[in-house]
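BUG: 3D viewer hangs when loading the predicted structure for this chain

Environment: internal workstation, default settings.
Expected: structure renders.
Actual: progress bar stalls at 90%.

Input used:
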Amino acid sequence: MSLPQSRTAAAGAFTILMVCAAVSAQAARLGRAHFSNTCNRAVQTDFQQAVLLLHSFEFPQAEELFRKVESADPRCSIAAWGLALAETERQGADAPAKTLAKGWSELKPWLARPAGSERERMYVDAVRAMYQDSSTTSSSIRWNRYLDAMSTIRARYPADVNAGMFYALALAMTTGSGPEGIVQRRRALAILLPIFKAHPHNPGAAHYIIHSADTPELARIALPAAREYAAIAPDAPHALHMPSHIFNRLGKWQESIATNIASVRVAREWMASGRGGLGDEQHALNNLEYAYLQLGDTARARTIIDQIDTLGGGPGGDPWFSIDARIYFDVETHAWQDALAIKPPPGSPAEANFDVDWIHAIAEAHLGDAAAARNALEAFRASSDKWAASHGFADVLHLALLEAEAWTLYAEQKREEAVHDLTDAAAFEKAHPVYYADVLPRPASEMLGEMLLDMGRREEACTAFRAALSLAPNTHNSVIGLGACVRSVSAH
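Structure tokens produced before the viewer hung:
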């Protein structure tokens, strides 16, 4: 994209704004913000703090400060931009209809007011593109409009690192799977890595590198950012948790444990001071349990589940964290009988229950009840189809369906068909690296290794376990499975 002829003048004006308005907001240890704006000097500290919170996905707290800035300075249109972006959280144009309708009603009045600068108007117009006509226009079209708008800001104001970071984050959030997805993630990283090098204390750069590189192929690129992010923003629970995405990808379980313990501690401090933090604590605990399971430490994993259960049953707690924690535990420890006792929360819609349907199919198959496995499989097929249609994650659910189908076929004594399905699942997983919002699932190739080992096909099992470990290093069951099949091959 070619730059406008006024590029030099615009860049000069931007530099002046940077000098006049940039404020460091390190008091709360959230990193350093340098987001220039034309708002009143009195609101600068709150505005910069809100941007820092936005960069670390502490959305409710960012919303609160942006609203405070709006109230204190009725001409500060850029605060309306920040509020609109925070309200969609990480979902952006994919946010629920109710959220988009509410945010649009709050943003519209600002569109009629003059912006403090051309650049600020462009930011407001970018989020406008994400919200406008959400009831009649697909999220993909609105996402593309937002991407185009952010790309234009970045081109017109090359000194504005925030434009680069928010554009790169949108690239990461809209990336598909497969080779095309990796290409788009690399585009995001090509923007973010130089920003991180030049601005090592900016939380957005480190955070968005982690999101962009959250695949087996790219995770190692993000390791320096992962190891720095917690130190950049040690007072943000999400910033302390986020490095574990990369540590989990690389099988660095002790580092994952340490950063999630820190996240839990700070989330509890937030709750004690009335700043929220419950969701952050539940999410960090889920990852903490997963890391302990990968070390084979089931005792500590059980204590984490107890903590998750306490939070999920308390005021404002999300009971799904408890359900997912039990699923992780039962899958990793092969506690199939216990898995059958897992139930969705009372009143949960059928489409939301896909993971419970999935674990029931897997468990029934392992326990040898083919008919029950088939029933659970069909329930999973129905719920996952509905969920994918309304919420996305089609690739993840397709992979899970192949796994559930394979184990159901295995219980039905259709073993070659079962191996075929799991082989397809493993190939799909390798060719379609996908982002997981929670913890990583077991690799399909690990399941394939276990199936082949059970059939006595030892050398093929070893190959499958090695493939699993190439995607997910140091995962407990793959390490155990590879050791078992190697010993078995040696013995024969």
